[in-house]
Write a structure and sequence with these properties.
With 242 residues, this protein is of the alpha/beta class. Helices cover 19% and strands 27% of the residues. It has six helices and 16 strands. The structure holds nickel (II) ion and manganese (II) ion.
Length: 242
């Protein structure tokens, strides 16, 4: 897929489920929710991400925290997450300087991008030997590139009214929204979210991976006909917009 207008020189790769790789025009590389090794949707070899600067983790569930520890150790990337997850990752052997905790409403200015952690309406925990470990709250991220292009990765979430605040403050041109239902928004809720967020483009995610995720891009596309000002881009895992 290619377009001169969608992405303003930012390369966007969908690695299946909620995992996206973004590369800025200057080459800063960001991986969001890197569940790739056991992700049945991820393209083969997706764990070999190459050069990587930042990993953003929306929450502690296995399909989002995923292969963060291994990829961070291999690449030296800085991991950005809630303080509880940042602490957990240091216990797992990450260099404390490479595991940065932040919280909702705050931004981290890094090279040619600004990363803001925003609200998500969801839970967050890690599971080890049948024990639940507290993961702080679930979050979403706004990534603003120096050229003004702004992406909103919603993480796992239900729809919430403060998506309007996200729209007003950050004006994301592109929203990455879950549509699979059961654990997250379904198509109907994601359409409502688009009305609050008013992005130019939306890429549906978090569908089709497990049988319980009943929301489909077909249903989303059908319902989005009521919101013609937002263009839906359905990406195949492994596909890149550049
Ligand atoms: Ni989750
Ligand atoms: Mn999930």
């Amino acid at each position: 897929m290619s377009s001169q207008n969608i992405n303003k020189g930012v390369t966007i790769t969908f690695l299946g489920h909620a995992c996206f790789k973004l590369i800025s025009p200057q080459g800063t590389t960001i991986l969001i929710d890197p569940w790739v090794k056991d992700n049945p949707q991820a393209p083969r070899g997706a764990e070999n991400v190459g050069k990587l600067h930042y990993i953003l983790v929306s929450h502690g569930h296995g399909d989002h925290l995923g292969d963060t520890t291994e990829i961070a150790k291999k690449t030296g990337a800085m991991v950005i997450s809630m303080p509880e997850i940042a602490h957990y990752l240091i216990q797992k052997g990450l260099n404390p300087e490479k595991s940065v905790g932040m919280n909702k409403g705050g931004s981290l200015i890094a090279a040619d991008i600004r990363i803001t952690m925003v609200h998500a309406f969801h839970s967050s925990s890690m599971v080890e030997e049948n024990r639940i470990i507290y993961g702080g709250e679930a979050a979403g991220f706004i990534v603003r590139f120096d050229n003004g292009f702004t992406v909103y990765h919603a993480g796992d979430t239900g729809v919430f009214g403060d998506m309007k605040i996200i729209s007003d403050l950050y004006k994301p041109a592109l929203a990455l929204l879950p549509i699979g239902s059961h654990y997250v928004m379904g198509p109907e809720e994601a359409v409502y979210a688009c009305g609050l967020l008013k992005p130019q483009y939306v890429i549906p995610m978090h569908y089709g991976t497990f049988p319980v995720l009943s929301g489909t891009p077909e249903k989303f596309l059908e319902l989005m006909e009521k919101v013609p000002e937002v263009k839906v881009l359905v990406m195949t895992p492994g596909e890149t917009i550049d």
